[in-house]
PF20097 family protein
Amino acid sequence: MNCPKCGKAMREGYLFTSKDGAFSFANTVPGVFENAKNADGFVEITPLKPSHRVRIQANICEDCRTIVFDY
Ligand SMILES: [Zn+2]
């Protein structure tokens, strides 16, 4: 897909969390035991899955620092 801001082609990869919940983006997702977390206002974007990082398939434009994903 193309970036909604600048119109350039976006690079497809995965948005995923580290064990402390920080999001990262990469072409592939390293495996790790994940901590399931529930919080107020929690929206399940990806289902809980033991022994995997939470990951979201997404598209990135590094020129204008935009990430687009569906859930
Ligand atoms: Zn862009």
Q: What stands out?
A: The pocket of zinc ion is lined by residues 3, 5-6, 8, 61, 63-64, 66 (CB under 6 Å).
